[in-house]
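Predict fold of DEAD/DEAH box helicase; 719 aa.
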Amino acid sequence: MNWNPQDLLDIEHLDFEDSFSLAKYVSQIKEEQQIQANEIIINILEIWDKVEESTKQIWIDLIESAGFYPYLLKIVEKNSEMDITSEIRSAFHSSKKLQGITLHKEQKYLLNLIAQGRNLIVSAPTSFGKSLLIQEIIASNKYENILIIQPTLALINETRIKLKIFNNSYKIIVNTSQILGDKNIFILTAERVLEYDGLPKIDYFVLDEFYKLSSLRDDERSDVLNIALKKVLDFNPTFYFIGPNIDYIPEGFKERYNALFYKTQYSLVNSQIEHINISYQATGVRKQQKEKEEKLFELLNASTEQSIIYVSSPGRAYNLAKGYFDYLVHNDLLKIEQYLPLNEWIEENLSPNWGFNGLIKNKIGVHSGIIPKHLVHTMIEYFNEGKLNVLFCTSTIIEGVNTSAKNVFIFDNYKGPNELDFFDFSNIKGRAGRLLQHYTGRVYVFDNPPTTELIELDIPFHDQKIINDEILINFEREQVHAQHIERYDELNDFDEDYLKIIKKNSVSVEGQKEIIRQLETEIRVHPNNIIWSGLPTYKQLSFLLDLAWNNLLKPTETTFPMTLKKLPVSIYKHLNKSVSELIKEEIDYLEKKHVNWSSQKVTDAAIENVFREKRHWISYKVPKWLNVMDSLQKLVCMKIGLSYGGDYLSFASILENDGVEEELSLLIDLGLPASTINKIKKIIPSDLEDEDLVRFVKTIPRERIPSVLQYEIDKIQQL
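Predicted 3D structure, encoded as tokens:
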């Protein structure tokens, strides 16, 4: 039989003749087309029970030749015995350090390079199993201090939970206040790497999602990541950078760091793309959008497998999830509701009327960057445990999150206000299917996909093609490329003591210089606006926020709906009121402003507004500014001969950690909700820190904390 691509996609069973013919075809595929051969083999694995029994040994040989050892053992253990040669090869690919783990061919190749101490930059699909090799690196027990940089705090806790299996060998550090152990695994964001004054020499360095180094990916944290990377590479560690869909790295980087760039499309999970063509019956954008949504809902309801739905923004994610729920109600398709521990927590701490609560009860989840970190983790946890059938997501799903989704629906072709590019499209697409759980992931695309393009990564601190002041100023002059020397000299034409602080803060250089000039004037006229500690007065806070807003915001940053006038008011509200009180207050405001809105719409909008404000401004942006301002004002005070200055750090910590005191902030980083900490803090001895603190919290008898909910107990058990 002559096999063509369409035939290969449509295979549902194989009789003797077709099975033998196809196996012969696969065995003759040229090496440079091996990806096609692998995809066919994965298709055969998908229909294994419908393959003619007498031909299966041929396919087992092909599975082995493809290096699919995890699948090989799964099949052979169930159906037959391996010959002695295959047994030897399979044993060779079994992990020597991790129990019950078998590596595929390319994982084994990379592990051998890792064992040789090679520096690796690996671009591979999501289903490749890149993160598993991090566990192999740790399990080798060769390194004293291992650093893993993750892009977000939410991913730090997810990584920490995965690596708890190494607690007997290493101390896991996620917070700059923790005491070092003899051997340490640091799991930090780039910001925390720069904040960590006592960071010891790093022996092994893992950079996850390394594409975030690019200045072209529109990530406001890329400068900080480049500066952190430069700092860590000065330790001369062995390193392992991982990410997807990168075709080229900057010229000279491999040679400079004696690294191997390893790009592969090797995967044990196929992606099957289906374009959803809708014959619109109506005209007009709104009506056609309704038809598009209706089509999505029909497909979701018809599926018996878990699905992720990608949309462009947090508001879209929630509204579309709510629309799907309404569709199920309208068509009498709802099944028996579940009641999970999170439902009880939401009812007690937020509002029993929040639509999100009803969604979860009906196995519909939402994953976005505005919901609290512990909720983000719980959404993924519930989804992977099968407690949610569908998960409506924004681009946060791109960032290293592994799920059990069989299907991915790319419903929007935007990421925020910008069109989805080929890199992000490919990354989202790669979330369909999971190694050893699905052979094929299905991707449903509602709009024309972006044009295929080769992705060349820029690394500003290395290639200096596009390099911002914040990175450039951290170089020695002899490291600066000729075209930047004049700018470099202008940046450094400033007081040396201030420059040390400016470099470390890694935010706008010119903005910090202007802040210093204004602080030097203000300290002589109104010193009380600067020299304070604890909680600031409204006037003191407004003065600092005005300086930060006007000098530290990037030109590309969107501040709407926040305003400079509103920001100090919002901060005091979040300091003095519980989340449920903030929500009630926002509900009252929205009811008066939007008299025609339903009570459900008002409640949902109020909670979204409170979450967005807290997550972006109160817990992230303002604490970051306060840390910068604190460092600058202390030096200004010292320069004019004062023996003391202000101290904003405890205030910054309270904002960053949901009102939790600094000495208990580690518990926030370890995934405990602030509600839980507030319930137990009175019985925690004041002298406990770090491991002793965690150990005490984990062993508190239930009868001593009767008000703690099951959801909160679950989080305590994850410490």
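The mean pLDDT is 92.
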